[in-house]
């Protein structure tokens, strides 16, 4: 008697998803670096938030969600937003978030990716859904940062600079 | 004698990736619909392309890459761009692309996702890398469309409207 087990080869592994995310974060870091200090905090179009505020949200979503997934401690999104006064503060918080993601990643077992949690005590989402949201939201806001830079006459980095 | 096989549960299945992509495409379609006809083709910020041109690229990347992956026929990106004169043309091409993606998806076996191809005869990428690029590039340009809408005094749809 023989048994056939059908296994779908993963189209994307956990490690590959981390590389994709951190690649996007390297590009966003370049966008932060290229912004003139004052425009980072003051420039906006159509009543939108300045890029520094978008970065605070990106950092809060990334670091806050990873910490909640690993520890189970729920904090509201607003409390996860870093206090920043200047570009150097954003970059420092950005790099701390890089470490938080990498450290958390090894503690999240693959079988947890379908687990639902109440993110920030407000949004019921699966772990994979949260990670997809964090990445997609960063790409979305970074794209807006590209328009701000173009409006300021500054050429943004190439979209494929993920290294 | 017993054999232990260790299988990492997929963090994301092929079907789930399709749902995520088409969800993003539904949101982008809403953004196209909400654009005033003339601004879709003429409005821009900082020398960037109007949103209609960004949509032509998004359509070409999605439809062109799916068709190449399935048929093996290589066409340059430029040849995959739809001819569009008005918003209705973009929406029609958008919906045709929805069908092309769905039809192609069932023809791409999971084991092909790591296969490398020369996309548009110009870019050596894996199938999963191409799909990630298509989704990420759409989110990036749609985020730019959000800024155009805000600059025009128009409220864009919520980022989570993927249904």
UniProtKB/TrEMBL annotation, chains A, B:
Any Pfam family: DinB
Keyword list, A-Z: Metal-binding
InterPro entries given in the database record: DinB, DinB/YfiT-like
Key word Metal-binding present: yes
Coiled-coil zones: none
Assigned protein family: Belongs to the DinB family.
This protein's name: Damage-inducible protein DinB
